[in-house]
Specification:
CATH superfamily of the largest domain in chain B: MetI-like
CATH class of the largest domain in chain B: Mainly Alpha
Mean pLDDT of chain A: 88
Largest sheet of chain A: 8 strands, mixed
Radius of gyration of chain B: 25 Å
Order of helices and strands of chain A: HHEHEHEHHHEEEHHHHHHEHEEHHHEHH
Helix content of chain A: 40-55%
Structural class of chain A: alpha/beta
Low-confidence stretches of chain A: 1-31
CATH architecture of the largest domain in chain B: Orthogonal Bundle
Number of strands of chain B: 4
Low-confidence stretches of chain B: 1-14, 16-25
Oligomer: heterodimer
Largest interface: A-B, 39 and 34 residues
Chain lengths: 440, 321
């Protein structure tokens, strides 16, 4: 057994010699900053079960850098939320880990400060919004301060539509204003179609948070929303603009634009039912692109939530697929090198787009990978720069605190569906929950 | 209990009866001490496991409840503050009242129906049919609750089997997403509880019934008693102990409910099915407020004990009479 391992190791060593000599330019480039070196390295990684991207990226990385092998553990997202603090604080801290949240871990000193890597790799010169969501200031607010994590890619949300059903209600191009969109919803209802498919079971968390936040950014500006999510001092969700947005949503519910059983629909059910042709529109993110393409091949389109006024800026929720490095990680340099490679290597970017459907981020001048014709990914990738240029990307209102989704948005929006909560009460209840959680 | 109390008469292996304490007679005392020691040694493995996996976590929970702690970072002593804060947990009273509603579904209904079903099986279905009936009723106990919850979730969905059946019988107007409707979610969860716990109660009560002397029933029949009279005058009074056990187990299942609720509704819609167990989970693992979650858990435990003690006492007093 020992001999076998010895053989494998020497083979790996030989291979790495071959590759490092064959790829001199990269070896030289790596010399100038943090890298994986040439000695055998085993990256200790924790990935999220059910998402192929990190696994495929790690395979490709080993192909290009054969001295790097992986020891990958995986777990469900819900379990990662519980496990992450123990993993980060434990004896075998991960070099790379999928992070559900970052603030408390950063405050507890469990995550590596990535500022030096940002300077070394030039991440700080990338388009600003990419890194902001992973910055944590000393007072624990997000959006500015030291960098504690990076995105493998950057998701984008908006409105997907069933092209056949949309044609049936006379939609020839995406609506330009909120009023036009609401007109389409009314037409769909009148035509006996379900206007919007969405999920709402507490098991998945309430999907109506998506249209609500889209409405907030449509009738108001994104800054106060981001301030609230980033826990800036005195931020409130209970504003006049947000009230208007919540009233629109309440009206949509009362008009029967959502499925009647929405409070019992889980995320996967909603995606499957939309894929089977139930619903003209659905509010969701580009992580679902592959699924929609499969179910409704060539028949699904995407547009950003239109602004209230013609000519206004469209906005969207966008979040990095967040990965960080444990403060005590043994191979932090190599892990940071991997994160940089994901955003800059053409093959890695291609994997990101093909499998994840999301924007791979990276430098502003990086080439966007090719996408299959007819895929909705073309639409979502095209929408990314629109939001980037307008500077209207937002994090999710569901991410403001660790349990604002479970304890605030989900039950209160479910009550709104059940006619037990109105627009003003919804915002007041969620703000009270927000303050309660921050006070603890 | 392991070691016999040293003040009572105790019989030794060679059947001598010795009485303690008696300082003038040293030998028996030594025997007793050795006996006690051996007794403790036998109990030790179980005691060790029980201490490590039950008593220690219990004590730690009580300890955590006095601290503000996120599970990883430094903990700060806050005294009784967590116990005061628990009352600010949204809808705490609502979750407790939901738990009491679940007692009706998880406890009273299964015990009530279980009594009737067990007495019918006992009277009518002896032999193979009785065994089959017992097995079928007990089957839900063997199925993992999470799997059962998921299946029930799809049965009770808008397009599920329950609504399909309603539509077949022309009752389509009653069709709804049972677990997503504010008025029906809690009863729907309750019915799943009945399904799970009915078999347990029935089998336990049936076992109790077989211990009741047949002569009692015979003499009752000679006196002209019918099924109901037998049931109310013989079966129920003599089953008080078993009923007590059933109530204890099912009331705890209701008050500390978590799994069925978590996999079917996760507390929704709104807070219609939220129970203390779900709140503790969210506080501990989503909000990472271990101290606050522990305080709520300790209070839940106290609540369970306060409710269980009278049930226990009632069934014991009656059964010794």
């Amino acid at each position: 057994m020992k001999r076998k391992i010895g053989l494998i190791l020497s083979a790996v060593a030989m291979l790495s010699v071959v590759f490092t000599t064959a790829q001199t330019p990269r070896a030289i480039a790596a010399d100038s900053g943090p890298s994986c070196g040439t000695d055998p390295v085993t990256l200790n990684a924790y990935f999220e079960t059910g998402f192929d991207i990190p696994f495929k990226l790690s395979e490709e990385f080993t192909k290009q850098y054969p001295n790097v092998t992986w020891n990958i553990s995986q777990d469900q997202f819900a379990n990662l939320i519980n496990e992450t603090p123990r993993l980060l604080a434990g004896d075998n801290p991960p070099d790379l880990i999928r992070l559900p949240t970052i603030v408390s871990f950063a405050k507890d000193g469990l995550l590596k400060n990535l500022d030096d890597y940002a300077t070394a790799f030039g991440w700080d010169k990338w388009p600003v919004p990419q890194l902001n969501q992973n910055r944590v200031a000393e007072d624990g607010t997000r959006g500015s301060g030291a960098l504690y994590a990076m995105g493998l890619n950057y998701s984008l949300t908006g409105i997907f539509y069933n092209k056949k059903l949309a044609a049936q209600i006379g939609m020839t191009e995406p609506p330009k204003t909120l009023a036009e969109f609401e007109d389409l919803l009314a037409k769909a209802k009148a035509a006996g179609l379900l206007p919007i498919m969405e999920w709402g079971s507490a098991k998945s968390g309430m999907g109506l948070a998506f249209p609500l936040q889209a409405l907030m950014a449509s009738v108001g500006s994104t800054q106060p929303i981001n301030d609230w999510i980033f826990q800036k001092k005195d931020a409130t969700i209970d504003t006049a603009d947000n009230l208007k947005a919540a009233q629109h949503l309440e009206q949509w519910i009362k008009s029967g634009y959502f499925p009647p059983d929405i409070n019992a629909i889980e995320y996967t059910d909603a995606a499957a039912r939309f894929g089977k042709g139930e619903g003209v529109f659905t509010f969701n993110g580009d992580w679902q692109n592959a699924g929609y393409d499969k179910d409704l091949a060539g028949n699904v389109g995407f547009f950003l939530m239109p602004p209230a006024e013609d000519g206004g800026k469209p906005a969207a929720m966008s979040a990095p697929l967040t990965y960080g490095i444990a403060a005590k990680a043994k191979n932090a340099d190599c892990a940071a090198f991997f994160l940089n490679w994901v955003a800059s290597n053409p093959t890695a970017r291609q994997i990101d787009v093909t499998i994840g459907g999301s924007n791979p981020g990276g430098p502003a001048d990086a080439k966007m990978p090719a996408v299959t014709e007819g895929s909705v990914t073309n639409d979502t990738l095209a929408a990314g720069p629109v939001v980037g240029k307008a500077g209207t990307s937002m994090d999710f209102i569901a991410n403001a605190t660790s349990s604002i989704f479970a304890q605030g948005w989900t039950p209160e929006l479910q009550k709104m569906v059940g006619g037990k909560q109105d627009a003003a009460g919804l915002l007041k209840a969620v703000q009270a929950e927000y303050l309660r959680e921050l006070a603890q | 209990m392991p070691a016999p109390s040293t003040v009572k008469p105790v019989s030794t292996p060679d059947n001598r009866v010795v009485t303690l304490p008696d300082s003038s007679r040293i030998t028996p005392g030594r025997v007793i001490r050795r006996e006690t020691l051996v007794g403790w040694l036998f109990v030790l493995p179980a005691l060790l496991m029980y201490s490590v996996f039950v008593l220690l976590p219990l004590l730690l929970s009580v300890l955590y409840s006095f601290f503000r702690w996120n599970g990883v970072g430094p903990a700060t002593f806050v005294g009784l503050k967590n116990y005061l804060t628990v009352f600010q947990v949204p809808d705490l009273l609502g979750t407790i009242s939901n738990a009491f509603w679940l007692v009706v579904w998880f406890s009273f209904i299964p015990v009530g129906i279980g009594l009737v079903v067990a007495s019918v099986i006992h009277r009518v279905a002896t032999g193979r049919f009785g065994a089959i009936a017992r097995t079928i009723l007990f089957l839900p106990q063997v199925i993992p609750l999470v799997a059962a919850g998921i299946i029930w979730g799809s049965l009770l969905s808008l397009q599920g089997l329950v609504n399909q059946a309603l539509r077949v019988f022309g009752l389509g107007t009653f069709a709804r997403a049972w677990l997503g409707d504010f008025d029906t979610a809690l009863p729907a969860v309750g019915i799943i509880g009945v399904w799970v716990l009915l078999g347990f109660c029935t089998v336990l009560l049936l076992t109790g019934m077989t211990k009741i002397s047949a002569a009692l029933y015979e003499s009752a029949r000679i006196d002209g008693a019918g099924w109901f009279r037998e049931f109310s005058s013989i079966t129920v009074p003599l089953l008080r102990h078993e009923i007590g056990v059933c109530l204890t187990v099912t009331v705890i299942a209701a008050l500390a409910a978590f799994d069925i609720v978590y996999v079917t509704t996760a507390g929704g819609p709104g807070n219609a099915t939220a129970v203390p167990g779900i709140q503790i989970y969210i506080l501990a693992f989503t909000q990472r407020q271990v101290g606050l979650a522990s305080a709520l858990a300790v209070m839940l435990m106290i609540m369970v004990v306060i409710i269980i003690i009278p049930i226990q006492r009632l069934s014991r007093v009656e059964s010794t009479q």
